[in-house]
């Protein structure tokens, strides 16, 4: 396992990115709840992130949520009666507000310290439950109806762990959720270097990026699971924002997509 020191600090990076997009690129990604929360977060915290970020790195974070929202909506549409959405390493995620689906049980899981921060800033809606605990210990599953169709989302978390932590963990999920699916983001070996550099540039020198996936198909085969989808980060962003974003951002997005440096992987557990 990589060093966990400083990982909790990174939970404000995606929040600031969602605020940024909601202000400057609402046609691509809009998060009303994130804008509300901006008033509650100490200004120096967000300022440090802004100073270490560019248009591209902000949109890189937002693209992850844009795509996950679309994938989660597809899952919900396929299970209209009742289903679960489980966010592991939830941080300050606001997907339950963005999707606004009363037929969905949302579960937000995180370590005790970031969960206390979450509770301080975000009031849980009626169909959302906060669970404090280590996602790898799997005790959080005891609070969920695991027989329901369940989509597990792990966003911006796996990157801080090694593959030998992640593969056994995903395999255990298979035995717990008979109708389970998993979505997570990953970069390849080249992208790891850029991601690690960005995290440190925002002022967090403790958290280290470790995990990468060079071939989604082979990774699914290793797990003996079905690869439902491999989605590039910027396919839609490059179309929707081509007249608005800077030249450097356009080039960086194209290079990243062409090189598979940032992807969303969707697996069916059984």
Describe this structure in words.
- This protein is α/β, with parallel strands linked by helices and 270 residues long.
- The protein has a single domain, classed as Rossmann fold (3-Layer(aba) Sandwich).
- It has 11 helices and 7 strands.
- It has helices spanning 12-24, 32-38, 43-51, 55-78, 95-99, 112-121, 163-176, 189-201, 216-223, 235-240, 247-258; strands at 83-88, 104-110, 128-132, 150-154, 180-187, 226-232, 262-268.
- A 7-stranded mixed beta sheet has the order 3-2-1-4-5-7-6, with helices on both faces.
The share of residues in helices is 40-55%
What order do the helices and strands follow?
HHHHEHEHEEHEHHEHHE
CATH C-level class: Alpha Beta
Low-confidence spans? 1-8
Read across the widest sheet, the strand sequence of neighbours is: 3-2-1-4-5-7-6
Structural class: alpha/beta
In round numbers, the mean pLDDT is: 91
Globally, the shape reads globular
Kindly identify the CATH topology.
Answer: Rossmann fold
CATH architecture: 3-Layer(aba) Sandwich
Strand content bin: 15-25%
């Amino acid at each position: 396992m990589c060093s966990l020191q400083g990982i909790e600090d990174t939970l404000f990076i995606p929040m600031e990115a969602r605020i940024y997009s909601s202000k400057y690129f609402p046609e691509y990604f809009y998060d009303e709840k994130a804008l509300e929360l901006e008033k509650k977060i100490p200004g120096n915290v967000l300022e440090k992130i802004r100073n270490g970020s560019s248009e591209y790195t902000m949109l890189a974070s937002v693209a992850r949520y844009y795509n996950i929202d679309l994938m989660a909506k597809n899952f919900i549409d396929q299970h209209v009666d009742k289903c679960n959405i489980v966010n592991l390493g939830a941080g300050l995620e606001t997907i339950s507000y963005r999707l606004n689906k009363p037929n969905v049980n949302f579960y937000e899981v995180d370590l005790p310290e970031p969960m206390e921060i979450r509770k301080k800033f975000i009031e849980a809606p009626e169909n959302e439950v906060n669970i404090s605990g280590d996602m790898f210990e799997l005790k959080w599953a005891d609070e969920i109806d695991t027989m329901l169709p369940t989509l597990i989302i792990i966003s911006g978390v796996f990157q801080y762990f090694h593959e030998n932590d992640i593969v056994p963990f995903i395999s255990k999920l298979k035995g717990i959720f008979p109708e389970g699916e998993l979505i997570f983001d990953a970069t390849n070996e080249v992208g790891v270097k850029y991601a690690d550099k960005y995290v440190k540039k925002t002022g967090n020198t403790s958290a280290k990026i470790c995990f990468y996936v060079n071939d989604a198909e082979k990774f699914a085969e290793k797990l003996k699971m079905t690869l439902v989808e491999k989605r590039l980060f910027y396919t839609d962003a490059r179309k929707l924002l081509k007249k608005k974003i800077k030249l450097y951002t356009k080039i960086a997005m194209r290079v990243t997509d062409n090189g598979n440096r940032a992807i969303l992987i969707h697996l069916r557990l059984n």
